[in-house]
Amino acid sequence: MKNLFKNNGICADGLDRSLCVAPMMDWTDRHCRYFHRLLAPHALLFTEMVTAEAILHAGAERFCQYDDSEHPLALQLGGSDPARLAAAVRAVAPFGFDEINLNVGCPSSRVQSGQFGACLMAEPQLVAELVSAMRAETDKPVTVKCRIGIDDMDPEAGLDRFVDVVADAGAKIIYLHARKAWLNGLSPKENREIPPLDYNRAERLARRRSDLNIILNGGLSDVEMTDQLVRGSGPVFSGVMLGRAAYKTPYQLCQFTAALSDAEGKSPDLRSVGLQMSAYAEQQMQADVPLHSVTRHMLGLFAGFKGARAFRRELGETARKAGTDSTLILQAIEACLEMNRLPDDKKVA
Q1: 32, 64, 106, 254: the active-site residue
Q2: 84 and 137 Cβ atoms separated by less than 8 Å
Q3: How many domains does the chain have?
Q4: N or C end of the chain, less CB within 10 A?
């Protein structure tokens, strides 16, 4: 599948972006990312969005903790003031993120009230100033995540102008959610579902700006549909970004890993994942992190397979009970593997 991406998914900065996991508020915290890394050893992972103001007021330490295994790891920032974003980039520099991403795609009213996120698509020159200010403070790539448009913006001329202006400021990597965002009248959840996906528009942008790295995002639910989509367009995209599919059905990450692997059918060993997650959870519990803070990100691992309900119950309910041991994770995974009669080193499907 890697040969379906431009330069096999290797971008101009040397990072492999053939598979990325989107920043998702309240979901992609450090425990989630540790889990996802075991399922997708080479994927580019993203933090939750953190605002520049939060970093400057509460300190970078609070938001930037991660395990070294999470690399490559991108930090997503939100903001609309060049000086404040520049200061935030300086503040996070010691943490060694592989990329700094600017959120220009989130449609939530909370984000809009701070005058950042998707509403910034109406101000491409301001976004260019933000990118320039951020780039002046780091030698890491500064990238942008955006939609194909907002509200009544022309998705042809409007998106072209936005990308051209931002690219001129130095953002050469664009994560493109192939939906418009409607800032009034739709909730964030509705904005992920109601505006129609327009993959053809994303493809036209990728062809027109072949000098950029465009990563396709939005509605990519599984390997088969993604393969058909990118195969039909030819190698114009530099990779794909999974959002809800990666979180709600995380075994999809295993399947993408196998499809992108040089070794046909190679997929992470789920029993090994269970061993490592049990050990990780034990380490976190010793630091007073509740077991459920780790297991809550794993509930969908066996979605669609025998034992999925019992697995969710164990990791979602039993994990909350006082005195529950972290070996619960391994035991629940082993039970599902046995129920589906799966060798622990093979794919579920």
Answers
A1: 106
A2: no
A3: 2
A4: C
Handedness of CA 204, 209, 211, 214 (dihedral sign): negative
The last residue of a domain, from among 240, 260, 280 = 260
Which domain range does residue 32 map to?
2-260
85-94, 172-181, 236-245, 264-273: lowest mean pLDDT where? 264-273
Asked whether residue 232 falls in the same domain as residue 302, the answer is: no
Tokens of 334: 């082993």
CA 275 from centroid of its chain's CA atoms: 24
Q: Is the peptide bond before 72 cis (omega within 30 degrees of 0)?
A: yes
145 and 248 belong to one structural domain: yes
Element (H, E) at 125: helix 124-135
Taking the C-alpha atoms of residue 167 and residue 240, their distance in angstroms, rounded to an integer, is 19
DSSP code for 179: E
Q: Which two tokens stand for residue 348?
A: 């579920």
- For residue 263, name the pLDDT band (cuts at 50, 70, 90): low
* Residue finishing a domain among 237, 260, 283: 260
Element containing residue 163 per DSSP (H, E): helix 157-168
User: Using CA atoms, how far apart are residues 77 and 95, in angstroms rounded to an integer?
Assistant: 14
pLDDT at 343 over 70: no
Q: Are 5 and 216 in contact (CB under 8 A)?
A: no
CB within 8 Å of 19: residues ≥ 6 apart: 9, 40, 42, 43, 44, 239, 240, 242, 253, 256, 257, 260
Specify the 3-state DSSP secondary structure of 46. strand
